[in-house]
Structures are given as C-alpha cells and as structure tokens.
Amino acid sequence: MPTLRDIMTPDPVTVDPMATLKEVATLMLEQDIGSVLVVENDRPTGIITDRDIVIRAVAYGHDFGTPVTDYTTGDVFTMDANASIEDAAREMAERQLHRIPVTENGRVVGMISLGDLANRTVGGMDQEALEGISVPTDQ
C-alpha cells in the first residue's frame, strides 16, 4: 500500500524562527512555493503561507524585518512518512488543511499537499480532502 513517502515532496523549504518576513517572502519567490516551515532542531514549530503574510502582516502595514514567528501558525500537525495516503486525505479533510509536513522520527523529511494527492494518486483522494477543506467551520 502506498505511503506518504511515495508521494511527498522531499526536503521542504524551512527557516529558523528568527527569519524575517522579507527572507521568507524571498524564499517563496525564488522557490515558487506558497508555504515555508519554521523549524528548530529539525522539528517543526510553525508554518507560514503566502496568505498569512498578506493577511497578517501586509494588510496591517507591519515591518518586513519582523521575525516570521509573529505570523506563523503554530501547533503544526504532522504525519509520519509511513502513514497511508488515505489517512492523509482524511486528516486534510477533517482538519481543513492544504498541506501536511511529513516526518520521520520527529524530523521533517517532506511535505504533502492537496496538489500531491491530486497529481500523484488514483481514486479521488484529493476529492475527499478537498470536500472536507471546502466545508465552512463553526468559528
């Protein structure tokens, strides 16, 4: 049975907690990505997306020299590299996630996204995840 290791993007782009918004935005531009993991001692402590930068910083006119940790989403949900693709699709749907860092022994080894489910699987797993992500939450 295929696992996350089979479809993940290996070696995701990461920064340390003291990276600035400008540094992260520049990485996103150079790497053509929409999210960056914040890691400390090879363990994820946060994640920031291009949308986070726009909504949480740019919209309020904040300084781009500010540490990225002021704008990250903490409590990063991760999954083990040996987890099943079906479990990842279910977790994405239930938690309304677009991406999940993949770990091995607690260390980040990859990233799986909704796009990975769409492009690298067969059987509509991306549809299951997308339907869950698209459901409004009771916030």
TrEMBL record:
Pfam families: CBS (PF00571). SUPFAM superfamilies: CBS-domain pair. InterPro entries: CBS_dom, CBS_dom_sf, Diverse_CBS-Domain. Keywords: CBS domain. Residues 8-64, 71-127 form the CBS domain. PANTHER family: CBS DOMAIN-CONTAINING PROTEIN, CBS DOMAIN-CONTAINING PROTEIN CBSX3, MITOCHONDRIAL. This is Hypoxic response protein 1. It comes from Deinococcus aluminii. The lineage of its organism: Bacteria, Thermotogati, Deinococcota, Deinococci, Deinococcales.
